[in-house]
Structure formats: structure tokens, C-alpha cells
Recover the amino acids of this structure.
């Protein structure tokens, strides 16, 4: 029998995302408040505590509840990644860095999260409707095109003006 | 202060964060692994279980608690086929399609070969679907071969799993036949288990 994902996998993934955020923000520390990397370390520690509690109350909580609180933790981690992206783009006006962040951090982490959640739902026998699957593929395309446009906005301008790209 | 100046240096800060990150990530992975190992078996109701059929009174059986086992007392007539149309049912209770198969438990059964076996011709178990038709691959037939002291019982093996739809009741039909001139009061014990795949 294939090994199954436990709901706590999402909490573990969320912890790793917080740790990654902490290290990346430390590398870019002149653009962020000094305390931010430490705040993310504390958030990761909170996730660790969350895992410990989950272990001790495994039977009491039940799989449904465990999934939802672990998934919520992952959503919070993802929301922080997106928030950092918005902070860089709009509050700091660091467009180039925001583009790189969205392509190298935001998009891959969201995609990986969607992949694992869909894997988990299929393992649990939940129906992953065709409409949702199509929606996921369309979203990936839209996100990919969006990133391309974000990184190379001149493509759109040239497209609408009917200009050809001259190399 | 000199110490503060050193501590605020970026490489040192990064190293500290890297070390704490590794510590948290390793500890979390260890907890996850222990959770994985801790996830144990939960006893729940049998997904496919035995239920009394319409001819239950004719087989005068004993139904085990939770329907996970039963004992049937079936007869056989010499040189005539006796059919129990609905002595026992198999019921899917979990609400989802299940694969299962029947297995003959030789160690718990008593099917002696030789002169004892020569009294019998066959004991056939046939699984019928909800419409009353035989399920493909649902035959589970015991029969004898040979003559006299060299008579032996042939026991069945279900080749592939049967798939019972959710919340469905299937019937087990039993046919028996004893050999012409069979001795009276000959008894055989056959133990069959229902093995359900998750």
C-alpha cells in the first residue's frame, strides 16, 4: 500500500515556508523591519508546538479537524509570502525584486501547495471534480502568463500596438 | 556597545537564523515522523458483513456478533441437488464500493478425504447480485474427485476480487448433493472467510 500523507504534512510544510521566509528576509534585511525574520522564526516555532499538540490529541481531534487546522496554518504561511510580495511591490516600490519574488517564491510555493492538497484529497477518496481540475490548469496558465507579463511588460505593449519584437 | 555591533552583523544573524531554522525543521520532521508511526488501526464496523437471508431458518445457523462470522447447518440428499436460494446475504455497509473475496480456511475446516469424502458430490456457494443473477467470478465450489478410498475434496480459490457496490446486499446461494448410497449423518465443516480490501 502506498504511504499516505497525514494532515500534519501541511503544518510541516507551513513551518518550512516560515523558516524559508525568515532566511530570505534576513538576506534582504535592509528592506524590511529588523524584527521580521525573528517573527517568522517564532511563527515556525508556533507551528512546531502545533504539531506537538496534534500528536498528543491525535485521536481526540479526528482527521477532519486535524486537516482543517493544519491547512489553515499553511494558508497563513502562504498569505505571508503573498504579503511580502505586496509589501515589496507596492509599499517599497521595489518592482524588480517583487517580480523575482513572485516568480521564485510565491508562484512555486502556491503551486506546490495546491499539488499536495489535491494529492491529499484524492488519497482520502474525496472527489476532485473535473471542473476543479480544469480550473487548476487554467489558473496555472493564467498565473504563468501573469508572471511573464510581470517580468516583461513590454510584450503586452508591443502586442497591443501591433509592433513586432525586434531582437 | 561592541557586542551589539558584532551581533548586528549580517552573516552572524544569518548563521543564527540558519541554525535555529535547521533545529526547528529537524524537530518538526521528527514529530511528523513520530505521528506517522503513531497512526494506528481503528476498529470499525465491518464494511462487508453477513446478514440473515430469507432461508435463514432452514439452515438453522448461528450469526456471529457484528455479522463478521456465521455457522450454517446445511443438509445434502443422496443423488439429488438441494438448493438454498437465500440462506445468507453479504451486505456492504460502509457506503462505498468495496472489493472482497472469499477464502477457504483449510486449517479450521474439516473435509476429510477418503471414504468420508466418497459420500459427497459437491457443496457449491454462488454469489448472486441484487437482481438475482450470478456475479461473474462469484462461484465458490467444493466437489469431490476419485472413488472409494481415493476420493479427495477439491477446494476453491477465488481468482480475483469481486466488487460490491455501496449499500448493496448480495445473496449467497448454496447447492449441495450427496453421492448415491451415501451414509447418513455424515458431517463436514467448511469455514469460509470474507476478506475485504480497503
Amino acid at each position: 500500500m502506498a504511504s499516505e500523507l497525514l494532515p500534519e504534512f501541511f503544518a510541516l510544510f507551513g513551518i518550512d515556508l516560515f523558516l524559508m521566509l525568515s532566511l530570505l528576509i534576513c538576506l534582504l534585511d535592509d528592506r524590511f523591519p529588523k524584527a521580521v525574520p525573528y517573527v517568522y522564526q517564532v511563527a515556525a516555532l508556533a507551528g512546531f508546538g502545533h504539531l506537538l499538540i496534534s500528536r498528543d490529541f491525535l485521536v481526540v481531534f479526528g482527521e477532519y479537524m486535524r486537516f482543517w487546522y493544519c491547512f489553515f496554518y499553511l494558508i497563513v504561511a502562504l498569505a505571508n509570502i503573498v504579503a511580502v510580495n505586496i509589501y515589496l511591490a507596492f509599499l517599497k516600490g521595489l518592482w524588480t525584486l517583487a517580480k523575482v519574488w513572485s516568480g521564485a517564491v510565491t508562484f512555486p510555493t502556491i503551486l506546490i501547495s495546491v499539488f499536495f492538497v489535491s494529492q491529499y484529497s484524492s488519497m482520502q477518496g474525496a472527489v476532485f471534480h473535473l471542473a476543479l481540475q480544469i480550473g487548476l490548469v487554467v489558473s496555472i496558465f493564467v498565473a504563468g502568463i501573469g508572471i511573464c507579463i510581470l517580468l516583461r511588460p513590454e510584450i503586452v505593449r508591443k502586442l497591443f500596438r501591433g509592433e513586432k519584437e525586434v531582437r | 556597545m561592541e557586542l551589539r555591533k558584532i551581533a548586528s552583523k549580517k552573516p552572524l544573524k544569518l548563521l543564527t537564523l540558519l541554525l535555529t531554522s535547521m533545529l526547528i525543521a529537524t524537530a518538526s520532521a521528527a514529530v511528523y515522523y513520530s505521528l506517522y508511526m503513531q497512526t494506528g488501526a481503528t476498529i470499525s464496523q465491518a464494511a462487508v458483513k453477513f446478514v440473515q437471508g430469507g432461508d435463514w431458518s432452514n439452515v438453522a445457523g448461528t450469526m456471529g456478533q457484528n455479522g463478521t462470522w456465521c455457522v450454517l447447518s446445511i443438509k445434502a440428499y443422496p443423488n439429488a441437488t438441494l438448493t438454498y436460494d437465500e440462506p445468507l446475504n453479504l451486505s456492504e455497509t460502509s457506503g462505498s464500493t468495496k472489493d472482497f473475496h472469499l477464502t477457504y480456511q483449510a486449517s479450521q475446516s474439516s473435509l476429510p478425504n477418503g471414504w468420508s469424502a466418497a459420500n459427497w458430490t459437491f457443496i457449491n456457494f454462488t454469489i448472486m447480485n441484487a437482481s438475482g443473477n450470478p456475479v461473474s467470478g462469484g462461484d465458490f465450489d467444493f466437489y469431490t474427485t476419485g472413488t472409494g478410498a481415493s476420493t479427495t475434496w477439491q477446494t476453491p480459490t477465488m481468482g480475483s476480487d469481486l466488487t460490491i457496490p455501496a449499500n448493496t446486499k448480495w445473496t449467497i446461494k448454496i447447492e449441495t448433493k450427496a453421492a448415491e448410497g451415501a451414509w447418513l449423518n455424515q458431517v463436514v465443516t467448511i469455514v469460509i472467510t470474507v476478506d475485504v480490501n480497503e
DSSP finds six helices and no strands in chain A.
